[in-house]
Design brief:
Elements: H1 24-28, H2 58-61, E1 69-74, H3 81-92, E2 99-104, E3 107-112, H4 115-122, E4 128-129, E5 132-133, E6 135-138, H5 155-170, E7 179-181, H6 189-194, H7 202-215, E8 221-223, H8 238-241, E9 247-249, H9 262-266
Parallel strand pairs: 7-8, 8-9
Antiparallel strand pairs: 1-3, 1-6, 2-3, 4-5
Helix pairs in contact: 5-7
């Protein structure tokens, strides 16, 4: 296995397939999430001008005191979250700063900092995003989800985690599915939205690798640069998940002891 690096400027393709449901790896990651809508990358051609939809609940919410407000969004399930939040930022002409991103069925639930922002989102009902009409509702009685990064409130939260990781991998695989750029994950808006904590957490890397192995079976190159890794234990199962792996970049991490490489050979990487 050669330690080589490759840039993120190369072509990236969308992954296909969604793997098998119910994997306990994803459930263990927890349900509480954050999303800074001020970052992320959109995709050209995915948006269109608003339709004639009428905002839901606008008039009845005006009298509420300011503070965090839960908003539901219908029509965005399965779409790239980073692109959605960048799109919303552009449409309301300021950062939405969505947090506590959760799903129940086909509905996304977010918390925005103020009623003012929530009302601006309501005005967007009927707008199309990736060909689907979005509808927004303010939730005067917020829907409750699991709290804390170590908890899980049910299968819908597990599915939400899978959706996020699929969206992450779709932006980081080359068109042939032979190379994965997993560098700088801590700065990725999707990872940040999950509130998953330190990338030293082996459960997070395990979940990413399990799903990547399901989606991309011919990976020969993986870039793990700039992840702040001081140990390779979080990715010790690389060889098991990617038996064709030949090139691995570990540049700009914090690994000071070459004996850390032993854990890769022990798990089957060559």
């Amino acid at each position: 296995m050669n330690n080589q690096s490759f840039g993120r400027g190369g072509g990236r393709g969308r992954g296909r397939g969604r793997g098998q449901g119910g994997n306990p790896v994803f459930s263990r990651l927890g349900a509480s999430t954050d999303q800074n809508g001020n970052t992320g990358s959109g995709q050209a051609g995915g948006f269109s001008q608003p339709g004639s939809g009428v905002p839901f609940g606008g008039a009845s919410m005006v009298g509420q005191s300011d503070g965090p407000v839960q908003v539901s969004i219908k029509g965005c399930r399965g779409k790239p979250e980073a692109s959605l939040f960048k799109f919303l930022n552009m449409k309301v002409e300021r950062p939405v700063n969505a947090t506590n991103v959760n799903y129940r069925g086909e509905i996304m639930y977010i918390t925005v900092p103020s009623m003012d922002i929530a009302q601006e989102l309501l005005k967007l009902s009927g707008i199309r995003f990736y060909g689907e009409k979005l509808s927004f509702q303010i939730k005067p009685h917020p829907v409750k989800f699991g709290t804390g990064t170590g908890s899980c409130s049910g299968s819908s939260d597990s599915a939400s985690i899978r959706d996020r990781l699929i969206a992450l991998l779709q932006t980081r695989a080359d068109p042939q599915g032979s190379a994965l750029d997993l560098s700088g994950l801590a700065h990725d808006p999707i990872i940040q939205s999950m509130g998953a904590g330190s990338l030293q957490d082996s459960k997070l890397f395990e979940a990413i690798l399990v799903l990547a192995a399901q989606l991309y079976t011919n990976v020969i190159t993986i870039n793990l640069a700039n992840n702040g890794l001081s140990s390779l234990r979080p990715v010790a199962n690389l060889g098991m998940h990617f038996p064709k792996l030949r090139n691995l970049s570990l540049m700009n991490n914090m690994i000071s002891d070459f004996r850390e490489l032993n854990c890769l050979s022990e798990s089957g990487s060559k």
